[in-house]
Amino acid sequence: MNRLTTSQGGFDLARFPEHPRDPFRAWDAADEYLLRQLEGIEGAEPVDLSGAVVVVGDRWGALTTVLAGHRPVQITDSYLAQRATLANLVRNGADPDTVRLLSPRDTPPERIDVLLVRVPKSLALLEDQLHRLAPAVHVGTVVIGTGMVKEIHTSTLKLFERIIGPTRTSLAVKKARLIFCTPDPALARTLSPWPHRYDLPDGIGAVSGRTVVNHAGIFCAERLDIGTRFFLNHLPERSGRDRIVDLGCGNGVVGTSAALANPEATVTFIDESYQAVASAEATFRANLGTDAEADFVVGDGMADVPPGSVDLVLNNPPFHSHLATTDATARTMFHGARTALRQGGELWVVGNRHLGYHTQLRRTFGNCTTVAGDPKFVVLRAVKR
To answer: Which of 86, 174, 206, 253 has CA atoms 20 to 30 A from the CA of 30?
Structure first.
């Protein structure tokens, strides 16, 4: 936990789930820059926050916590960000009921007077969010984006310009930058181009030639990524009434492949991204129909899966948390999988060879075997003894 100091006071903030040895803070220079702008930088007038305030993409709730007294609406695709926000509000004595938490799947507010956007890593997610929020802004809406310099590109500014109105940027401070956008009511309102669909190639097992549905923000939403392709070619061949979990499901192509290969199995798709779980459900339904049984869960990994209830976990763990490279998510997933698996249950993992997941799996399960590998990727299998 670290303390963020602002003109409004000090705030103790942490990420979620909170790890005592986590070296990363729950905010960065981009958040600090935006908060200073709202307060009035170098003699400028503070931003009037008495109207409807919407905070988009707040990564760990720092912005929302500091602004809690203005009863903001937070919109984030991350379940973990929502949990962090709630925990940080309580930690700092704010009433969680003063903040309205929404996902991109929810209906946005009808009117926005101040729109604060933490620029996401995914340009597609930003595009979709701006399309959804544009009808709610008006000529007097204050629109400010923020991000680290490496996160803000010409394409980022063009999206604000095309969807909201004239856009300019600030000078860089501590490698962070602000985006100022003036709403233009005369802009033609268009619909978001998302979700995208594409057909899978042949030669990748049960999902060959099938349709994949991708909502904005999903990893490799335009094409099948090479790691998943490698995994699909080496999934376990099983039959019977297995309980299977596609952990960190993304667009659900791995779990859908398992369901097609074993019609008797029940598959649970889990991701901390609302957009991912919506994509997984759309992909599953497009290929197995509306009556096929499956569960779709937005949550913190395997935290809500009953212990000893799962036969097989399929996992392609992420190794980035925003701009930071970390194996913390993978470790949490591996431990959660072990708890959820029955005796004899299996965890199958695909990852870049250099990440060395075999070491962590041996520590967690006491065993790990290599199913397949090439110069870049490896598929690993661990069994709960």
So the answer is: 86
Q: Are 77 and 273 in contact (CB under 8 A)?
A: yes
334 in Cβ contact with 364 (< 8 Å): yes
Q: How many alpha carbons lie under 13 Å from residue 188 in its C-beta half-sphere?
A: 2
Helices (H), the chain: 29-39, 62-66, 79-91, 123-133, 154-163, 226-232, 253-261, 274-288, 328-340, 357-365
Site of tokens 């008006």 = 138
| Separation CA 200–CA 286 (nearest Å) | 13
pLDDT digits (tens, 9 = 90+) for 163-203: 999 999 999 999 999 999 999 999 988 899 999 999 999 99
What does the pLDDT read at residue 67? 97
At residue 322 the predicted structure's pLDDT band, cuts being 50, 70 and 90, is very low
Peptide bond into 17 cis (omega under 30): yes
Q: Does the N-terminal peptide bond of residue 195 adopt cis geometry, omega within 30 degrees of 0?
A: yes
DSSP 8-state symbol, 173: B
Q: pTM score, two decimals?
A: 0.95
Q: What is the DSSP letter of 133?
A: H
152/148 Cα distance (integer angstroms):
7
Summarize the confidence of residues 289-317 as an average pLDDT. Answer: 96
Cα distances from 347 to residues 264, 311, 381, in angstroms, run 19, 9, 6
Burial of 245 (0-12, 13-18, 19+ CB in 10 A): buried
Q: Tell me the angle at which helices 357-365 and 328-340 cross, rounded to the nearest 10 degrees.
A: 30
